Amino acid sequence: MKKTVVLDIVALSSRVIGEHTPFLKQWIDSKQKAIVEPVLPAVTCSAQSVYLTGKWPTENGIVGNGWYFQDECEIKFWRQSNKLVQTEKIWDILRKENPDFTVANLFWWYNMYSTADYAVTPRPLYPADGRKLPDCHTQPMGLRDRLQSELGQFPLFTFWGPNTTIESSKWIAEAAKKVEEWYQPTLNLIYIPHLDYNLQKYGIDFSKISKDLREVDDLAKDLITFFENRGIQVILLSEYGITSVNRPVHLNRIFKEKGWIQVKNELGLETLDAGTSAVFAVADHQVAHVHVNDPSKLAEVKALLEKTPGVEKVLDAEGKKDYHLDHERSGDLVVIADADSWFTYYFWLDDSKAPDYARCVDIHRKPGYDPVELVLDPAIKIPILKIGAKVLKKKLGFRYLMDVIPLDATLVKGAHGRIPESDLDKPIFVSAKGEDLDQKIEAITVFDLIIKAIKD
């Protein structure tokens, strides 16, 4: 089997490859490139799971970055156990053919408790005093200490949130090099998230994202050169492209006004109680799973959604089959935004009653995806003083609330999740010259192409 690296540069699309990415443009021009017709929803967990299983969400079960766990009556995002993926992975199949095959998974999602030989993924520490500390989880467990002794602590707080920088992607890249030097896996899966951040924050505005493009270009150059100099073939791909948006759509607020959302008063603030709500939406970028706990309301809910500004399409049972989303984890209805819109998780009608986590970076407690976490509240006049005071409390061991995120969804200018109209905004797949690669491929075809590259 041929040693292979699959480099996943999130949000890399044909639209952003050009003058600000000179290395990538030249390297891609020397290879074969295909446009990937993305899975719906075009989000990280669903896309990666399709690539690694060759199965649609209807079979692998990954219908989004999170979903409503019906047996627990809880909405959970960004779970990490690989047991949630319900079909075989690419490495399981290749290992059956060759017991010497090994795989390293550097930050692709559902990376804990899998059958991968080597794995590294973010996993904060949560001491009993309420602190959140940067850390990672690895397989084997000792790899964590070895990497952090060489590279320093994984920079979690630059991985997501208003303080995101290239540093987390650099750490991942250096970790991938170390894993190659120490273990020489047959397949090395590497996830580089840097472009995801400011493209969601600003949309396709080159005056604001050109620095990010140059940074990821330099990082790609370093990584690709490193692996190619070791005689390892590199496949480059992405999961989705980001497009500019201007309209947030608050589905749960619409349901709240109809009296369908049940909230619980917690110290004067509202939290969503999904198990007793008649209708609620699990918002995930430009796609939302709408659960209708009262079946008598299904037709009424569908009609309401179809006339909601910003909604392009509502998938019922038959529609979900068309998009390979007919799985028990999906909502009773799946809603797709139009090109200018995206869905918030917001369910409160009065900001003074928003839950305390709404103003924090809190990806696990929020009942939906929240890209506003990338933005520092512009109402904070001297951010460095407010944040510095909270960090000081943290270091002194006091309880603190890092409530620095605004509640203004209009600040988000980029989104993904729907299938865009233009091929320029779709993900890409790049491999070596000489292969018979179609100009456009289905998302599940990526699985077959990776296997073919390794076995040729």
From TrEMBL:
Pfam families: Phosphodiest. PANTHER family: BIS(5'-ADENOSYL)-TRIPHOSPHATASE, ECTONUCLEOTIDE PYROPHOSPHATASE/PHOSPHODIESTERASE. Coiled coil: none annotated. It comes from Algoriphagus boseongensis. One of its GO terms (molecular function) is hydrolase activity. This is Putative AlkP superfamily pyrophosphatase or phosphodiesterase.
